[in-house]
Amino acid sequence: MLDLTFETPKPKVIQGAKSDWELVIGLEVHAQVSSNAKLFSGASTAFGAEPNSNVAFVDAAMPGMLPVINEFCVAQAVRTGLGLKAAINLVSAFDRKNYFYPDLPQGYQISQLYHPIVGEGEVIVEMGPGVARRVRIERIHLEQDAGKSIHDMDPNMSFVDLNRTGVALMEIVSRPDIRGPEEAASYVAKLRQIMQYLGTCDGNMQNGNLRADVNVSVCRPGDYERYQETGDHSVLGTRCEIKNMNSMRFIQAAIDYEARRQIGILEDGGSVTQETRLYDPDKGETRPMRSKEEAHDYRYFPDPDLLPLEIEQAWVDEIAASLPELPDQKKARFMEDFGLTDYDASVLTAETEAAAYFEAVAEGRDGKAAANWVINELFGRLKKEDHSIAETPVTPAQLGAILDLIAKGDISGKIAKDLFEIVYTDGGDPAEIVAARGMKQVTDTGAIEAAVDEIIAANPAQVEKAKVNPKLAGWFVGQVMKATGGKANPKAVNEIVAAKLGH
Ligand code: ADP
Ligand code: MG
Hints:
Layout: E1 13-15, E2 20-32, H1 71-83, E3 91-92, E4 95-98, E5 108-111, E6 121-128, E7 131-144, E8 148-150, E9 159-161, E10 168-174, H2 181-198, E11 210-219, H3 223-230, E12 240-245, H4 248-267, E13 275-280, E14 285-291, E15 301-302, E16 309-310, H5 313-321, H6 327-338, H7 342-349, H8 352-362, H9 367-384, H10 396-407, H11 413-426, H12 430-436, H13 445-458, H14 460-468, H15 473-483, H16 490-500
Parallel strand pairs: 12-13
Antiparallel strand pairs: 1-2, 2-10, 2-11, 3-16, 4-5, 4-15, 6-7, 7-10, 8-9, 11-12, 13-14
Helix pairs in contact: 2-4, 6-7, 7-9, 8-9, 8-10, 10-11, 13-15, 13-16, 15-16
The structure holds adenosine-5'-diphosphate (ADP) and magnesium ion.
């Protein structure tokens, strides 16, 4: 089991002109549900389709069309909730959030304000070995996404693409438990990793399938602890919300800028106005978008076209029973079963494909050696060509076979790297390649001795020096390795050289 005794990371402290300030951050993450069909229609969600080709009548808000809830999207939200150890609400309901969205023809968004499908949960965000923050999740609700307005195709007209209109989103709302820009990025990364494991959101930030509204405030040291003790929000500073961030780098830069901006205002004796802001990546600054709206401004009311959503505990239990092993568990198991370091286990569990690859190689072999080869050789080589693990030309069976040849003493580590390169570029069975190309390590001490004798006979002056200075033995070892094309067993060479030099 995962050891949950971890140290809490220090909050980021920014030194203002007058005093120290701490950051308080809460995130509202919008995650597109992985589903072939939309939340309330059967239209496809395929990315990159011809504009307006994936639009059902209900998505276009044709008169008389009614929404029909997609059971699979509900299951995905439940699955996500369970993955975040959250309470699942057996009764939830949909509300209309009234707002003019030019790319949502209904004129309102169907969301869940009053009764979300998922309640309180948590995400463990690791900031280093044994250092982690427990970020509380307040709720997850299901809602519709809007379409896309396109303003840069024509000087006089705007276009609208409704393909995304009505696609299911999960809005995952955290408590203000995040204490720095790096933590915020790590939190988003961890959420994304968990959802990728669960198969509930592909986490593709470039396509906008995962984006975050980032709430930032600053407070004096000690204030946050007071908030934790009392649960009283008012001891925290006034926050601003930075909308729609879809890059880890920009999330960090925006938080940093925003915190400094607020500190500047406060130290000048002013007060922060609660508002929604946008981050401009070119200028590296946030600027006001609109003043903060309240829930009542949206005239929320229960959607009369949809009955309250009732699900059964047995169905939830079924989903719970089918959950895959999640990142924290997998990492802990890799450390325990394969003796991996915290770092190696983190790298190898970052993606499910990489984890599965590693396990296939490590099963029945030396786990640490397998981790070294997968991380340093395979990942390193793939990275050179900008390939993902899914594109690896070396199968786990092939890499495993290379490790077996090393373990048996058939090849040295150095030769193994050459062999890996051959398998990577040409394919083939590693053992057969070794046999066919004469790459086998020479362990025959007679042959090694002969090679050592030859080097010694050819270099009498070096021998005299090495006899008094044992450090010079390394030169002889190097010469023997060179003479044998790197195939001599290094351990045997070392021993024989030492003996011949009288060490
Ligand atoms: P609202 O009801 O105005 O939407 P919420 O209480 O739902 O506000 O909070 C919205 C988001 O803002 C949550 O992610 C929450 O963690 C975050 N948040 C609340 N207070 C603060 C604060 N003082 N500083 C930073 N983030 C905050
Ligand atoms: Mg809110």
